[in-house]
Amino acid sequence: MATFKGIIFDFNGTLFLDSPLHEKAWIEMAVELRDKKLTVEEFRIHGHGRTNKTIIQYLLGYLPEMDELERITEQKEKYYRELCLQNSQDFKLASGAEWVLNKAKELALPITIATGSYARNVEFYFQYLNLGKWFRREWVVLDDGTYPGKPAPDIFMLAAQKLHLAIHDCLVFEDSYSGIESAWKAGVGHIVAVEPRLNHDLIKVPKHLITYQNGFEGFDLNTYFS
Description:
DNA polymerase, domain 1; alpha/beta; 5 strands; Rossmann fold; 8 helices
């Protein structure tokens, strides 16, 4: 296994297992936005890892005007943040994630987050999940509307720039089909897919570039960093 120089983490569904909360919030919003019910499996394919703009366009079948787009986004995210606080026992980093983050800090590895979340949610996570212990806020790449979201490669290319590393020197942790495709298109050195429910037949990444891992428990960073 080649050795790498830095790590880029997806956040939602990877470091923070909030997929059921996003699913619940979007299923609720879908009732308002379209006649057809949004299923969990449909959301996993068309929603996970994608920006709010992309999901809203998918649900409506068209892209609304900016004012309406912002209204729908904030309505959904406000409900989602309320769900996070209501489910306080689960509002924490994924099991094993803190060990990996602490190990990365011990090894003095440059790390950052590449997320489809928008700024208000990122601030929310930094406030409640103490992300500043491991991450520099100014290095986080998020959905600010200036670049296409996953599965386009831009987000990981920008994250590598934040770390001052070549993209092929970066190890990526991801959980979604769109995120894995995005990382592969960007040319990252290796992808660790931490979602055990992924259908491997839907993932076109060459086998030598991806490792399937059930979460962070038992993950050995020493395999990738010497």
